[in-house]
Amino acid sequence: MDGAGLDGAWTRRWIEAVAAEVARRKQELTALDRAIGDADHGENLDRGFRAVLGKLEALDDDATPGAVLKLVATTLISTVGGAAGPLYGTAFLKGSMAAGDRAALDAAALVEVLTAARDGIVARGKAEPGDKTMVDAWTPAVDAAAAAGDDVRAALQAAAAAAAEGAAATEPLVAHKGRASYLGERAVGHRDPGSESTSLMLRAAADTA
Amino acid sequence: MDGAGLDGAWTRRWIEAVAAEVARRKQELTALDRAIGDADHGENLDRGFRAVLGKLEALDDDATPGAVLKLVATTLISTVGGAAGPLYGTAFLKGSMAAGDRAALDAAALVEVLTAARDGIVARGKAEPGDKTMVDAWTPAVDAAAAAGDDVRAALQAAAAAAAEGAAATEPLVAHKGRASYLGERAVGHRDPGSESTSLMLRAAADTA
Amino acid sequence: MKKLINDPTKTVDEGVAGFAAAHADIVRVVVDPPFVVVRQDAPVPGKVGLVSGGGSGHEPLHAGFVGFGMLDAAVPGAMFTSPTPDPILEATKQVDAGAGVLHIVKNYTGDVLNFETAADLALAEGIEVQTVIVDDDVAVKDSLYTAGRRGVAGTLLVEKLAGAAAQRGDSLDRVAEVARTVNSRVRTMGMALSPCTVPHASEPSFTLAEDEVEIGIGIHGEPGRERIALEPADRIVDRLLEPILEDLPFAKRDRVVLLVNGMGGTPQSELYIVYRRAAEVLAERGIDVARSLVGSYVTSLEMQGVSITLLQVDDELLGLYDAPVQTAALRWGR
Amino acid sequence: MKKLINDPTKTVDEGVAGFAAAHADIVRVVVDPPFVVVRQDAPVPGKVGLVSGGGSGHEPLHAGFVGFGMLDAAVPGAMFTSPTPDPILEATKQVDAGAGVLHIVKNYTGDVLNFETAADLALAEGIEVQTVIVDDDVAVKDSLYTAGRRGVAGTLLVEKLAGAAAQRGDSLDRVAEVARTVNSRVRTMGMALSPCTVPHASEPSFTLAEDEVEIGIGIHGEPGRERIALEPADRIVDRLLEPILEDLPFAKRDRVVLLVNGMGGTPQSELYIVYRRAAEVLAERGIDVARSLVGSYVTSLEMQGVSITLLQVDDELLGLYDAPVQTAALRWGR
Ligand SMILES: Nc1ncnc2c1ncn2[C@@H]1O[C@H](COP(=O)(O)OP(=O)(O)O)[C@@H](O)[C@H]1O
Ligand SMILES: Nc1ncnc2c1ncn2[C@@H]1O[C@H](COP(=O)(O)OP(=O)(O)O)[C@@H](O)[C@H]1O
Ligand SMILES: [Mg+2]
Ligand SMILES: [Mg+2]
Ligand SMILES: [Mg+2]
Ligand SMILES: [Mg+2]
Q1: Burial track D156-185 (b if 16+ CB lie within 10 A, e otherwise)
Q2: What is the signed CA dihedral for D171, D172, D176, D181, rounded to 10 degrees?
Q3: In contact, A117 and A73? CB cutoff 8 Å
């Protein structure tokens, strides 16, 4: 609430909020995936974030943002599976590496973390903006955060808003990556589930900061 | 229509009428069998009587009642299958043997034929009256024909009426033979499909005489 | 009910034709009288011939079990309808090598009567025939006041073990005795989650509400013993096993073959969930599961459901179970 | 949708436990990390190890194909969800006998990424790993603008032939080459009459009207290429075969393995009706069906439907197909 950076406690709060939101919106995410995928995205993320909650308890109270993010990364990688598991796992892993051992993240560090996360996803999944994937939420979010100046909370708000718009903007698209790409024109009119979960995560980040 | 006995032409007419009625009421017979059996009685008889029609054409114009009945018997045995195939097959076979080489059947001969048919069914299937099978239509029909005096047409009318009553009277029964016997009390309230097809056959006999 | 068929009146013909083409290395098919599926090398010199058959719709039973170490011929009737005597007689002639023929018949009035006529006709042609009636279904009361127990999934085990006895060269009397022994020691109970629809019918053979299951189902979509609310798989398994165990009865230290059989529309993963609990219950009771078989072997078209079968075995029966078999649907040891 | 399950979140665990208990003569199961189904005698000295895996719900794929002459380990993920790297790594370690390990991966983003991570981790532990991606589904356009073709029923043939190559002692390079050759010559197309429902879901993965079928369906209840009115089986077969034949293309005098695969809820009789027409069409085209396989091998829970797979073979590939195999779901020649 003050001008200080985002510390380990916030990171933990954020992740707990993501877990709660994923649990609450599990069916909705799965329903998006049912329309153009295989009806498991909500279930996958919920399994992962429930496991994360269990592990968070065992983590040191004074863990850095980077340490929290690393724990999230390894837990998602080993519990989620599917496409979202490795992609979000890589995102959190690269984000944690960008955070390093900083005790708190200022706006510049936040942008580094978000950029590293997005770049990790692109490196693994090879999706470009417009391919109707989570990249379509991440990329505008990174750009908005970078343009937001040096208030870290404002940067998070901007990222969350841009991710939400990016997710909505996937609706008219034909998909070129992931399961929805099998559908051709039939994917048009449906929102990409991964872009929506990305939006959920960044909204939780802004709301807990 | 006169007082003469039932000749080969009538026998043929009768069987053609049975075939037509079975085709018309196929679904109904199968629906009865669906409720307390395996949903094929109408289908089975229709397959059999369609085959009979094909064979009847090749039969001599002046074939005796016994010859027509024998053809029906062997055709049903080799095309119907299930329980009804051997049972009706035996009925027509024993009936044809009782008819012998008579050119026409008077009332006494008719009663002999019907009795032989019923006895054949009982000998093969071991059902007693009240077991909720076709025997419950045959037995009152034989009795009514025997009691009808020496007008062969009146005898057939009496047999048809009694068979219809016998079929209706199977409804409150628990079955002791055939598939319906697996159901115990659950068969109560449903008419036995074989008793209904017997009633159909004897009604056609009366109507064509 | 949507089906992958052409003409509803030709489903059996076309299915048999496809089966024959796909397994020409194992079987050949006689189409007139329709249909007899015969072991490719029948009659096998000196060997007792094994013939089974019954209504279609239970595939792979029986045609899938024709081959080395099991049946010599199978006679598929119309859908859920016993075959007529003509093809049964033809099958009997095709497999007779002079050592006689065993008819394995599931206990349904139609099957019993048609096989009976065929056996009489075969006898008249000088072929020695014995008949074994299979009636393993504990869902039906066996009494003077019913048509008796039905033959269901246990039929597979009768065919397997009698087939092995015939393959090793046993006499007709001895093969028939093996078949009767197996039948006397095998018990089955089934259930359905959903009904089946015969191709020529416009509606399913019975209806179940979205939360109902049918316990004690037969294999022709005949209604079962009772209709109850859907329960967890483990509870359902307990319900099926209880009457089986009581009936023989099966006792501590018995050795058994455990067959978990899918009704046609049940995914394999669910069969293994059922197997898991069945094995657990048997272990608790001190019953030794010597062999296991899990799959959809005796089915009712696309019906969803399962049956559990236990066969009490000794060394000899276990040896017959383990003996090599090579058919379209069952293969091991060779 | 009624199911024979207990807790929807435990269907995979309990199914694997049942599978392991029923087939203890062929496999053992590692439960932590969950789950790895390993060939009983792995690692087989000197032999290249074969690991496959993927989302559950396609049984008997992959666990049913673990055993002599086929896979050394299978890694079942959550329902329709690729497994995570941990159990894949564990499987890789369990089957490595020093000759290296081949990962057979169906082409889905999730499977590819998780196997990729596992392969990296295995390499870091000094295990040589090669990966073959299976993408036999002609329903999906293979282009830069999609995730590429899906791996479907052809996977079974890749696993069988590569398994035979490994069993005869081929090197890792050679086994991988066989797998890639098979993948390059195998084509599949599927369709569905009804959807499937994952256990944790309240509703089916898609819906079809009573007169509609989905052509070009995947094996996860993903919507297909197009939705059309129900047609006779023969017309549907023609629709499935046409794009398969054109794609490779298959030509006159080619020899093929023909696999007619049920989606889980389709009765065997319908698969044979499909087989009949497929064999007829291939005969008309002068294509020689050298071997046939008909059954529900690569499924989508209780989905009703079928896929047709053709593999173009030469003498060597045919020899690998015929080589002995002894797994829960596929057995011959031994
Ligand atoms: N190549 C890719 N690059 C980026 N994101 C992807 C890619 N493939 C899939 N995704 C994302 O993953 C989401 C699906 O995740 P999920 O349903 O959990 O996995 P799966 O598709 O394996 O079932 C999609 O909505 C999409 O946003
Ligand atoms: N033992 C028996 N004696 C007399 N009639 C019987 C006997 N068993 C069955 N039936 C008759 O057969 C009818 C059923 O015929 P059908 O449906 O064609 O054969 P299945 O029962 O083999 O499907 C029953 O309705 C009953 O009237
Ligand atoms: Mg998904
Ligand atoms: Mg019937
Ligand atoms: Mg019947
Ligand atoms: Mg998935």
Answers
A1: bbbbbbbbbbbbeebebeebbbbbbbbbeb
A2: -10
A3: no
- Residue D131 alpha carbon to ligand 6 centre in Å: 20
Peptide bond into C249 cis (omega under 30): yes
Question: Where does residue D273 fall: left (phi above 0), alpha (psi -120 to 50 degrees), or beta otherwise?
Answer: alpha
ipTM of the complex: 0.93
Q: Which two tokens stand for residue B3?
A: 């007082």
D103 part of the active site: no
Tokens, residue C4:
């992958």
- Cβ distance D81 to A186 less than 8 Å, yes or no, reads no
Q: Is D332 in CB contact (< 8 Å) with chain C?
A: yes
Q: How does pLDDT run across C163-181, given as a tens digit for each residue?
A: 999 999 999 999 999 999 9
Which of D114, D121, D206, D228 is the best substitution to test chain A (most A C-beta atoms within 10 A)?
Answer: D114
For residue C314, give the amino acid letter. Answer: D
How many angstroms separate the Cα of B88 from the Cα of each of A61, B52, B197, C178?
A: 86, 13, 10, 34
| Chain C neighbors of D272, CB-CB under 8 A | 14-19, 22, 59
Kindly state the helix (H) or strand (E) to which residue A71 belongs, with its residue range: helix A65-79
pTM for this model (two decimals): 0.95
Measured distance CA(C149)–CA(B45) in Å, rounded: 25
Taking the centre of ligand 6 as the mean of its atom positions, its distance from the CA of residue D81, in whole angstroms, is 4
CA distance C75 to C98: 20
DSSP state of C323: S
Distance C112 CA to ligand 4 centre (A): 14
Chains touching C, CB cut-off 8 Å, 3+ pairs = B, D
Which of D97, D45, D94, D48 lies closest to D74, judged by CA? D94
Cα C273–Cα C276–Cα C278 angle in degrees, nearest 5: 110
In chain C, which among 166-195 make CB contacts under 8 A with chain D?
Answer: 193-194
Torsion of CA C269, C274, C276, C277, to 10 degrees: 150
Low-confidence residues of chain D: pLDDT under 70: 142, 144
At A125-164, the pLDDT tens digits run 999 999 999 999 999 999 999 999 999 999 999 999 999 9
Cis amide linkage into residue D249, ω under 30° from 0: yes
Judge whether C114 is closer than 8 Å to chain B, CB to CB. yes
Question: Which bin fits C263, alpha (ψ -120 to 50), beta or left (φ > 0)?
Answer: alpha
Catalytic residues of C: 58, 220
CA torsion angle for B25, B27, B29, B34 (degrees, to 10)?
-170
The C-alpha atoms of residue C168 and residue A54 are separated, in whole angstroms, by: 61
Determine how β-strand C288-295 pairs with β-strand D186-192. unpaired
Strands (E) across C9-88 are located at 27-30, 36-39, 49-56, 67-68, 73-79
